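Please check this.
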Amino acid sequence: MSPSQRFQQVNLRREFLRSVGQGMLVAGLGFSTAFDLGLSPALGDEDAQPINFGSSEALVRLMQDTTAEQLLPTLNDKLNAGTKLRELVAAAALANARTFGGEDYIGFHTMMALVPSFQMSQRLPSAEQAMPVFKVLYRNSTRIQEHGGHASEKMHHIAVASESNSSPNGQQLLELVRSKNLAAAEQLFAQIVNSAPTQPDHAFNELLFTVQDHTEVHRIALPYRAWDLIDIVGVENAHTMLRQSVRYCVKAESPNYTQHCKGGRNILPKLIDDYKLLSQPLGTSPVEDSWILSISRQLFSTTPTGAAELVAAALSEGIDPSAVAEAISLAANQLVLRDAGRPEKQTSAGKPVGSVHGDSIGVHASDSANAWRNMAAVSNQRNTIACLILAGHQVAYDRTSRGGDFLNWEPYPTPAHQQRIDTNAPKKLLAMAESAIRNNDQAAACAAIAKYGQLGHAENGVFNLLLRFAISEDGALHAEKYFQTVADDFANTRKTLRWRHILGLARVTASEYGQKAPGYQQAKELLGV
């Protein structure tokens, strides 16, 4: 049986899922606080039939039932016996989805780190390739065990009802999510998937109507990372990956959440209509570096509404969407480079005063812009336009509404920082950067890497250095995602401007150093590296 046939058969067998506890337990706390504190009820039905992943089921169950300390030795034995690293990532993704269903803060952050960790592994020698993946799998197992393993699964089978909608679509899904009707939203999304079971891009495009209803980092990054995972878990599991976003969005919906993001919700249809963006094909006009810099600065300095309109105007003029995305990512990067650091009132374990890693404004903004950029690249015309307009809106919103005086803060490295660099030798510059990272000196790390880039040295030297720390350090749930965000944005930004992204990574790396990742030492010993 082919993957597409299995996928269709599985969907036809799925049991109808009825929802309980559809509201936020503490609505007044708002969406992110409730997620972080775990104060929201589970969305699901304990009587529903479990999902079975066929030939992958045994490995998925192993991921759910094995303690973190026992997991890595077991998986190392499997690698030595011929199991592929890619198979471990796939099983971990399916175990995570089945356990958490997009509901758990640490759970969905861990899911979003899986593809980045696998991409990081491809940069390493063969003997070390399991290191970044093992780090995330350890985190995955720890969180699954805290939730009771497979006995506490949140996501179950769902079947298409016998009297199904003949033409289910994303607008209908959005209305059900807004009304917090999980059972109906899950049923409709299953119908959407089932209408084109071998074409997950159809379901993805319909899902984006709901994703685009709010500009909030997790709502945006979750479907992008789930989409990336489909290539690893197989098209037959696309529904399992993507429906996590449906559940996340239903759970997040609340008056406070709507108030937080209503600007983007209201302006998107207006701009699409005002600029007649669906009446002409997307443009392909290239732009000069000066255009990218100018639009990036305007996006960074204007209001959210002004930024959204800048993007809409550029698209209406026939500018290549990839160029617009390039400018948005560079604007988000400024939020990393200009951040004054975490104030005392926002500190927590692993995130001290002055730090810029983890859920900082800049890291969140860059991850969001990268997700919008990549979703725009694989979507239909309507969603490409919508993703980019909202990306522009969000980067300006993050600057103006999340706190900080970014327009008046000077970006790293300042001229004073750069004057302290007294060598042009590439090895010495990398050594200076490493020393700065180990001393949590964000400014010196940026300055050394800036000089390295200005002299035209190969970027591989920097990425190899920063990769080591992205693996060894905890990173407050964001090390893998942000490393890959920077690697991706660097690769898709013109040569004259792309080093700005690496400077952001150098700064964040220096900020996060000193908090070793759980499981890192065990993984090193097992792999002998």
Observations:
- The CA atoms of residues 430 and 462 lie 7 Å apart.
